[in-house]
Amino acid sequence: MRPRMQEIEKRFPNFEHIEYDYDLDEDIISKYKVGDILPVFILLDDDKEVTRLVGEKSVEEIENKLRCFE
Asked: Which of 45, 46, 51, 59 has the fewest CB within 10 Å, making it most exposed?
């Protein structure tokens, strides 16, 4: 997922990408109720969840979600 996120960050300069480790960051994983299917892309606005994508997604699928909030 990392290469896709780097590509998206280039296209959406106001987008901030933060990665968490499912096994090491238990507090944040629990806070956002991340299940067993990974990766999980959670779009936040003012620390509130706006939408999420679960499982491997293409750059186009992620960009389509982000365009809804430009």
From this structure: 46
Summarised one tens digit per residue, pLDDT across range 16-68 is 889 999 999 999 999 999 999 999 999 998 889 999 999 999 999 999 999 98
- The CA distance from 69 to 53, in Å, is 15
Angle at 24 between CA 3 and CA 29, to 5 degrees: 80
Total domains, the chain: 1
For 45, the domain range is: 2-67
Beta-sheet strands, E only, within 1-70:
40-45, 48-54
Of 59, 48, 50, the C-alpha closest to 11 is 59
